[in-house]
Every structure is written in structure tokens, then in C-alpha cells.
TrEMBL record:
Domain of life: Eukaryota
Localization: Cytoplasm; Endosome membrane; Golgi apparatus, trans-Golgi network membrane; Prevacuolar compartment membrane
Membrane topology: Peripheral membrane protein
GO cellular component, one term: Golgi apparatus
Annotated family: Belongs to the VPS35 family.
Transmembrane segments: none
Biological process annotations from GO: intracellular protein transport; retrograde transport, endosome to Golgi
Annotated protein name in UniProt: Vacuolar protein sorting-associated protein 35
Record's keyword terms, sorted: Cytoplasm, Endosome, Golgi apparatus, Membrane, Protein transport, Transport
Protein function: Plays a role in vesicular protein sorting.
Length: 790
């Protein structure tokens, strides 16, 4: 059926064009022979094709444009005729004898254009006559195109200021009156289209109306181009008359389009000065009109106007633009009870954008907008509409982007209240946006109360909201979220130790309620933040009396110890062990032996009870040995206890090569190369000999299990340790001992049972080259190496 209708319409259009071209041909012939009577006859017959009611507006436009082109030629002929002495007044009378009203009025408008140009009568009289005459056509589509033609031929002949057709003092008013009258009649015709035809064709009619809307809107554009329309005339005449027509037409499509036209075509300055009048019309529009978009565009234009120059800002203050816009939005939301939440929030986003551009210094205005949004959202369930949540995110992001400083946003009391209305997923997105803003702008949060407010804002990342289990989250997303919180903790800093300690306590309070899965990410940055504070306080001993200076190293270490203990719920023994060792080293630098010893004790307990994986044990024991080697604060008894533990655990590792490496690493615990460091040569030698025995046992075990000895890498590594202590002056490590070990390795490598290992051989060769190099270097070291034969 639809296909048939389209085909029929194409056929009717083709017939119309054929008829038009046929008559146009004879019209041209008459024009060429200067036969006025035949020219008018055929032009009237040509224009009769426009009387059709069978074409859609789109197809009718094609026909109209062909007729328009022909009328241009006819107008040129009329001009020539008037120059040759033909009376335009007679011509004006003559065309009115055309049989049908539509061709008659098209011809009348065409001659009228020449009549005005001839200046034989005032432009205002001719225009008034034409606009009145056009009332004779009341068919919506035909009437709209006729009046559009009138607007087209008259737009450069309006009696405007500076125009050649300018008349007496009220000339501009005549021009405005003409355009307004034409606009009013065109709008009535346009609206009437909606009432014609059956209800089932409503969508089709709305589409057709949409295609014709620019015909009506052009009148407003013409009005905006009239030079004589200054602010006073716009305020007193133009805007009230246009708004009266907009409100009275009571048509949803017309009201939306025309309000948008008003906003787009007239200058920003006029909008600002007539804000009250323009906004006063909004609540009077039909409830179904998309007024939020209209207001949003108005605020966007005003925002851009404010941003264009600082000089215009006083005008905004003078007319109290914010108050008027805020009041208007409130009235619109109140009047349109069924307005969806997303519509209301969109309005508030536009108002906030406007406020941030025009009044960036007025935080109370910004908070007022957020408060209005909270009021709209209160009493409703959490937002689940994706469009609404997107708008809320835009609302909350605007202050961050404007101020580039989270501290300013934290001053807004309604900011967290808006966030509370977001669903959990969007709450997290917004929290990430806040953290990214802090990172991007390198914002440092200096006060504990601000940290408290900030962590309230980002609570969606710090704890499970409404019991939503963390397992539902994508693992990668969860890691990214928690890493962003970890980065944030490093941005919290204050030069005042007391305030910094308060900040650490505040952060600790929040992260400890985050559940075991989050602690793995959030505890380490907090610990390092605490250790940074400890290093700033080095030199303070003991507790300080009173509350004036509560941030002492002891107090901080106590807090850090309790915080690391919380990791036992994760569990994360390897991480906890690393953090205990970091704390022990910081306590060593602060000369707090009992605290350092306690941290080592905790590390060993963790190693004994929690670290079960053999690889993790190897890593852990090397960390313990390395940290213990750097400790200078321990007395003999404490150091012996801890080194004994370390060597004992080293020898108990599962794999022989791991045992060997851990035991020879322990040798460094008995020889610290510092002025006051321990230098126990005997115990160094004991460790190295024990390592050799373990390496030998590893060789034998390899022989039993594989039928051949394993590589000699362990022996070469021990040889290097011998050389290290030999150079450091350990009296127990003699050149004979080094010589013996070199010969042992050489023998092992030449043995038939040893598996060839190129890397071990290269390692040994490199070590021998080093010995040779030291011998050749001469001096005291050369003499020391001289007895060793390689």
C-alpha cells in the first residue's frame, strides 16, 4: 500500500511538472514577444499546478521551486515593462483578474515586489496589502508556501533603517508589523496541519510538519536581521508578540521549535536583558514540550556569551541571571509533574555549567544547584536509568573540571549527598573520576577533616556498599580501582607531623573497614606514608607528654604494627613480612632497638607459621638476611638471637642449592664493612664451610639421582664469597683456602661424572681472570693474591 502511494505521488508530481513546464514554455514565448496579456494568462495557468492537494510537502516543495524559478523570470519582465513606461499600478490591478485565487496571489506578490521597487507607492502600504490579501488561501501547505514566497520577495524591500525603502519615523515598526503578521498567519497554518486527516496518520503529519518548520522559522530570522530592531523594540514589541503567538498556539511541535528559534536567532545580549519575559513563557507551554532542551540551549548560549568576554559579566550580575534561571527551572520542574528524572538533572547540569562560567567564585550558587538536584532525587530509589546516572556524573564532574582542585569541591555540602543517589557501579565510576582529578592536577590534601570528607566521597571504592559482594566485580577492574586508592594515599601530605599523623589515622580508619580483599592494595601505601613520617621525626625519643605533639616514632610504629596485623585476614604473609622488615629498618634508623626487635620477631613468626611455599621461603629468608645485615642498633644478645634464627632457617630450606645460597648469604651477617660493624672472621668461615658441605651434598645427591654430578655453579659462587672476604681482610680466609677451593673446582670440572655446563664454566673462567687481574695489578692487593696459582 505504501509503495503504491509513493508511486502515485511520483506520478502526480511528474504530471504537475509537465503541466508547469508546458505553460512556462508558452509564457516564455509570450515574454519574448512582449505579449503581456498572454504572459499573464499562461503564468496563471502555470501557477494553477500549485493548487494540487495530492502531494506531500516534500514533493510539493519540488513543484514550488520550479514555479519559483519561472516567477523570477516573470518578475524580470515586469521590471523591464515598468522601465518601458508601463504603469506598475495598472499591472498590479491587471493581475488581480486571474481566475483562481492562488495564481492571482502569486502574481500579485511578484508584481508587488516590482511595485515597491518602483517606489510609486510606500513600501509599507504595498506590504500591508499583500499580507492581508494572502489570507485568501487557508489551505495549510499551499498557504505556507505562498506566504514563504511573499517573505522571500519582500525581505530585501522592507522599510528598514538605512534601506532605500525607508519611509517616515515609524518605518521600522511597519517592517516589524509586516513580518510579525506574516509569521503569525504562517504559524496558524502550520499548526492547523496537525488537525487535518485521520488520527492514524498522526506520525506522518508530524514528519511533514517537521519538513515545513523552517518556512515558519525564517520569519524570526528576518526579524533578527532588521537593523531597526534594537533592544527596546525587541523587549517591548517583538518578543512579547512572538511569545504570545507561541503560547497561544498550544501546539507541542510549534512551541518547542519556535522557542528554540528565538534562542538561536536573536543576539545573546537581548536574551540576557529579556530573560524574565522569555523564562516567564516556559511554564505556560504545553506539558509535553521538551522545555529542558530549550532551557539548556538558552543557558549554553548565555554561558558562551559570558565566556566570550569578561566585560559582559557585570550585565549578568545586574539582571540577576542566576536567580531568574534557577527560579524558572524550579517552576518548570514543578509544573511538569511527569518530567522524567533525567530531564530535571539535565536542566541542573546546564544551570551548573552556566553558574561555573558566569559565577565561578560563588560556591554558594554551585551548592544551591546541587541542593536542588538532591531535593529532586530525594524520596526516590537509587538511580538505575543509565541516562540519568550519566547526567549526574556530568553534574558532579563539572566542579572538578572547573576548579581543578578537589579541596574546593569538598567545600560543597551537597556534593556527597548527590553522590549518595548513584547506584553502586556509578558511585565507583565517580569515585575514580575524583581520584583521577586529584592525580591529574597533583592536588595535595593537607588536612585530616578534608581527608575524612574525601574518603566519604569515594567510599564506593573503599568498602562494599549495601553489602554488594566484591566477587561479582571483574578482577582487573577491581585491581585498577584499588590501585587508584593506593595512589591517592600518597597524595595526602602535611608538613606538620601532628596533622600528618591525624591524616594517617583517618585513612587507616577507612581502609580497615574495606574487607580483606582491599587491604592487600591499601595497607602498603599507608605503611610507607607512616614510615615517611617516622623518618621526618628521627631523633625524637620516647613519648612526649601532653597532647601538643602526639606524633612520635613510637606511637607511629605502634599504629603501623596494628595495621600490618590486619593483613592476617587477607591472608598475605609475604606482603606482611616485607612490611615488617621495612618497619624494622625504619626503627633501626630511629635508634629504637626494642621496636626493631619486635618487628623482626613478627617477621620470623610469619615465616615459621604462614610462609609454606618453598619459593616464597627462599625469597623471604633472603629478605630477612639482607635487612638484618643493615641493622646497626642491636646489642650482642639480640643480634646473636636473630642471626642464629636466620642461619637456622637457611639450613632448613627444602632444596640443597637454596640451602647453600642462603647459608653463604648469612656469612655477611658476621662481617659488616663499616667502621663499628661486626667483624667475626671465624663465624664467616664457618658459614662458608657449611655452604661448601651443602654444595658437596647437592653434588652427591645429583650423582645418586641422575647418575652424574650436578654443575659446579654453587662451588664457583662460594669461591666468589671467599674472594670477597679475602679482599676485605678477613684473617680466617687465607690464600691457601682460596687455592684449595680453586683446585677443588678444577678437579670437579675435569671429572667424568660431572655434567658439562657452559654457563658454570664461563663463570669459573671469569672468576679466574679476576684473580689473575688482581695479581697483575700490583700493590698491596697484588701481593695478597700472589700466592694463589691459577
Amino acid at each position: 500500500m505504501i509503495a503504491d502511494g509513493v508511486e502515485d505521488e511520483e506520478k502526480w508530481l511528474a504530471e504537475g511538472i509537465a503541466g508547469l513546464q508546458h505553460n512556462a514554455f508558452y509564457m516564455h514565448r509570450a515574454l519574448d514577444s512582449n505579449n503581456l496579456r498572454d504572459a499573464l494568462k499562461y503564468s496563471a495557468q502555470m501557477l494553477s499546478e500549485l493548487r494540487t492537494s495530492r502531494l506531500s510537502p516534500h514533493k510539493y516543495y519540488e513543484l514550488y521551486m520550479r514555479a519559483f524559478d519561472e516567477l523570477r523570470k516573470l518578475e524580470m519582465f515586469f521590471k523591464e515593462e515598468s522601465k518601458r513606461g508601463c504603469s506598475v499600478i495598472d499591472l498590479y490591478e491587471l493581475v488581480q483578474h486571474a481566475g483562481n485565487i492562488l495564481p492571482r496571489l502569486y502574481l500579485l506578490c511578484t508584481v508587488g515586489s516590482v511595485y515597491i521597487k518602483s517606489k510609486e507607492a510606500p513600501a509599507k502600504d504595498v506590504l500591508k496589502d499583500l499580507v492581508e490579501m494572502c489570507r485568501g488561501v487557508q489551505h495549510p501547505v499551499r498557504g505556507l508556501f505562498l506566504r514563504s514566497y511573499l517573505s522571500q520577495v519582500s525581505r530585501d524591500k522592507l522599510p528598514d533603517i538605512g534601506s532605500e525603502y525607508e519611509g517616515d519615523a515609524d518605518t521600522v515598526m511597519d517592517a516589524v508589523e509586516f513580518v510579525l503578521q506574516n509569521f503569525t498567519e504562517m504559524n496558524k497554518l502550520w499548526v492547523r496541519m496537525q488537525q487535518q486527516g485521520p488520527i492514524r496518520d498522526k506520525e506522518k503529519r508530524e514528519k511533514e510538519r517537521s519538513e515545513l518548520r523552517d518556512l515558519v522559522g525564517k520569519n524570526l530570522h528576518v526579524l533578527s536581521q532588521i537593523e531597526g530592531v534594537d533592544l527596546d523594540m525587541y523587549k517591548d514589541t517583538v518578543l512579547p508578540r512572538v511569545l504570545e503567538q507561541v503560547v497561544n498556539c498550544k501546539d507541542e511541535i510549534a512551541q518547542y521549535y519556535l522557542m528554540d528559534c528565538i534562542i538561536q536567532v536573536f543576539p545573546d545580549e537581548y536574551h540576557l536583558q529579556t530573560l524574565e519575559t522569555l523564562l516567564g513563557a516556559c511554564p505556560q507551554l504545553q506539558p509535553t514540550v521538551d522545555i529542558k532542551t530549550v532551557l539548556s540551549r538558552l543557558m549554553e548560549r548565555l554561558s558562551n556569551y559570558a565566556a566570550s568576554s569578561a566585560e559582559v559579566l557585570p550585565e549578568f550580575l545586574q539582571v540577576e541571571a542566576f536567580g531568574k534561571l534557577s527560579n524558572a527551572i524550579g517552576k518548570v520542574i514543578e509544573a511538569q509533574v511527569d518530567m522524567p528524572v533525567v530531564g530535571a538533572i539535565t536542566l541542573y547540569v546546564s544551570l551548573l555549567t552556566f553558574t561555573l562560567r558566569v559565577h565561578p567564585d560563588r560556591l554558594d550558587y554551585v551548592d544551591q544547584v546541587l541542593g536542588a538536584c538532591v531535593k529532586k532525587l530525594s524520596g526516590r530509589p537509587r538511580l538505575e536509568d543509565s541516562r540519568a546516572t550519566k547526567q549526574v556524573v556530568a553534574l558532579l564532574s563539572a566542579p572538578l573540571e572547573k576548579y581543578n582542585d578537589i579541596v574546593t569541591a569538598l567545600k560543597l555540602s551537597n556534593y556527597p549527598r548527590v553522590m549518595d543517589h548513584l547506584d553502586n557501579a556509578t558511585n565507583k565510576v565517580m569515585a575514580v573520576v575524583i581520584i583521577q582529578s586529584i592525580m591529574k592536577n597533583n592536588s595535595c590534601i593537607l588536612a585530616a577533616d578534608k581527608v575524612e570528607a574525601l574518603f566519604e566521597l569515594i567510599k564506593g571504592l573503599i568498602k562494599d556498599l549495601d553489602g554488594s559482594p566484591v566477587e561479582e566485580l571483574d578482577e582487573e577492574d577491581f585491581k585498577e580501582e584499588q590501585n587508584s586508592v593506593a595512589r591517592l594515599i600518597h597524595m595526602l601530605y602535611n608538613d606538620d607531623p601532628e596533622e600528618m599523623f591525624k591524616i594517617i589515622c583517618t585513612v587507616r580508619k577507612h581502609i580497615l573497614i574495606g574487607g580483606p580483599t582491599r587491604l592487600f592494595f591499601t595497607v602498603p601505601p599507608l605503611i610507607f606514608s607512616g614510615l615517611q613520617l617516622v623518618r621526618r621525626l628521627q631523633g625524637q625519643e620516647g613519648e612526649v607528654a601532653g597532647e601538643d605533639e602526639p606524633a612520635t616514632p613510637k606511637k607511629i610504629f605502634l599504629l603501623l604494627n596494628q595495621t600490618i596485623e590486619a593483613l592476617s585476614y587477607v591472608p598475605a604473609p609475604e606482603l606482611s613480612l616485607r612490611l615488617y622488615l621495612q618497619c624494622a629498618e625504619a626503627a633501626n634508623d630511629s635508634d629504637l632497638e626494642p621496636i626493631a626487635y619486635e618487628f623482626f620477631t613478627q617477621a620470623f613468626i610469619l615465616y615459621e607459621e604462614e610462609v609454606a611455599d618453598s619459593k616464597a621461603q627462599v625469597t623471604a629468608i633472603h629478605l630477612i638476611i639482607g635487612t638484618l645485615q643493615r641493622m646497626h642498633i642491636f646489642g650482642v644478645e639480640n643480634r646473636d638471637t636473630l642471626t642464629h634464627k636466620a642461619t637456622g632457617y637457611s639450613a632448613k630450606l627444602l632444596k640443597k642449592p637454596d640451602q647453600c645460597r642462603a647459608v653463604y648469604a648469612c656469612s655477611h651477617l658476621f662481617w659488616v664493612d663499616e667502621q663499628d660493624g661486626i667483624k667475626d672472621g671465624e663465624r664467616v668461615l664457618l658459614c662458608l664451610k657449611r655452604a661448601l658441605r651443602i654444595a658437596n651434598a647437592a653434588q652427591q645427591m645429583a650423582n645418586v639421582t641422575r647418575g652424574s654430578s650436578g654443575p659446579v655453579t654453587l662451588f664457583v659462587e662460594i669461591l666468589n664469597k671467599y674472594l670477597y672476604f679475602f679482599e676485605k681482610g678477613n684473617p680466617e680466609i687465607t690464600s691457601a683456602a682460596v687455592q684449595g677451593l680453586v683446585e677443588l673446582i678444577t678437579t670437579e670440572m675435569q671429572s667424568d661424572t660431572t655434567t658439562p655446563d657452559p654457563s658454570a664454566e664461563a663463570f669459573f673462567a671469569s672468576t679466574l681472570r679476576y684473580i689473575q687481574f688482581q695479581k697483575q695489578k700490583g700493590g698491596a692487593m697484588g701481593e695478597k693474591y700472589e700466592p694463589i696459582k691459577v
